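Why should sequence recovery work at all? Because a backbone constrains its sequence more than one might expect. Tight turns favour small or flexible residues, buried strands favour hydrophobic ones, and helices have their own preferences. The token representation captures these environments compactly. In the example below, the structure is given first.
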């Protein structure tokens, strides 16, 4: 029987560096960053999720040992991203190889979506209450594109002016969020909007004390499911494990070697609880609400402050104004009161200068 479809040959060009592959998607993404001056707009142009574009660039930089994209911090000229000389050189080498192998000029696959501006972008820590808050906004006709990147990358997204709002909970030993931000951010580029409090603790299939859990993790009796680097939960967990290791006379630097499951990372609190519920790990650090939704035991660690970082240049935009209004609304506060392990703070919605 004859084929009923036409077969079209297509040649793909790839460059290899010690096992790492430089392909058309990566080069198209870098070209889009150069064109639009923004990782967010570049991601849309090549059809990638914002978080996936970040990961693509980060993996390439790690494998090649050079920075390909650098931040352009907010200010009078605005924020964004731009290629480094190494990034431009990588594009040039790929284009030259493509021309040599195919006899044609390389045409990056860029969609018109790169020119489109979404109504609102949330980038930062995953939070169950934030999901509900964005749902309230959708009901009011305000749509936010959500990217669960973790607190540290959320701060970076604000510096790059890639995000309108970043949810963060960064613990430094001196407190949450403000000490870290005042040591990190240039003065005046962003403001901190006070959020609410949420209860963080260990989820497990059997009820255990905090001491039993920490000692069990360090001694290798309990298997852990971790959170990815750059999340506020990971910072808290690393601090807890380092203190416990020292208590047992163990060098904290050995934690990745001696803790079972330390390299297994989950992206959200719900994913942590799911891994434990399925028996793939014994314990994980997550929110009380996630534990209850999966029928797990919960051992409290601390109440933490969950706040929102916003670029000063976005404060008067409609998405941010609507976000702030919803955050302080009676409707959202009633939602918080129904979520286990959440409570409204006395200063929820207050705007603090950094």
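From this structural description, the recovered sequence reads:
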């Amino acid at each position: 029987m004859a084929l009923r479809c036409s077969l079209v040959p297509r040649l793909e060009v790839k460059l290899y560096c010690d096992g790492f592959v430089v392909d058309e998607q990566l080069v198209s993404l870098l070209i889009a960053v150069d064109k639009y001056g923004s990782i967010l707009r570049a991601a849309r142009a090549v059809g990638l999720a914002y978080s996936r574009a970040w990961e693509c660039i980060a993996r390439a930089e790690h494998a090649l040992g050079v920075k390909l994209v650098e931040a352009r911090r907010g200010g009078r000229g605005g924020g964004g991203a731009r290629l480094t000389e190494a990034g431009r050189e990588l594009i040039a080498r790929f284009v030259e190889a493509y021309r040599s192998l195919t006899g044609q000029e390389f045409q990056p696959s860029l969609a018109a979506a790169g020119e489109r501006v979404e109504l609102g972008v949330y980038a930062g820590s995953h939070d169950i209450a934030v999901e509900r808050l964005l749902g309230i906004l959708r009901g009011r006709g305000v749509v936010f594109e959500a990217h669960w990147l973790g607190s540290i990358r959320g701060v970076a997204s604000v510096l790059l002016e890639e995000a309108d709002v970043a949810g963060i909970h960064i613990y430094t030993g001196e407190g949450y969020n403000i000490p870290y931000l005042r040591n990190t951010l240039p003065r005046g580029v962003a403001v901190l909007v006070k959020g609410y409090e949420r209860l963080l603790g260990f989820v497990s299939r059997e009820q255990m004390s905090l001491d039993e859990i920490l000692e069990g993790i360090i001694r290798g009796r309990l298997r852990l499911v971790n959170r990815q680097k750059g999340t506020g939960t990971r910072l808290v967990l690393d601090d807890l494990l380092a203190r416990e290791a020292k208590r047992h006379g163990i060098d904290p630097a050995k934690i990745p070697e001696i803790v079972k499951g330390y390299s297994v990372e989950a992206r959200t609190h719900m994913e942590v609880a799911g891994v434990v519920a399925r028996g793939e790990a014994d314990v994980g650090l997550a929110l009380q609400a996630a534990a209850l939704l999966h029928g797990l035991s919960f051992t409290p660690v601390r109440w933490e402050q969950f706040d929102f970082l916003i670029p000063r240049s976005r404060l008067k935009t409609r998405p941010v104004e609507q976000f702030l209004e919803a955050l302080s609304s009676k409707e959202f506060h009633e939602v918080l009161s129904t979520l286990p392990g959440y409570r409204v703070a006395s200063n929820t919605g207050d705007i603090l200068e950094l």
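A few observations help interpret the result. The chain is about 40% helix and 20% strand.
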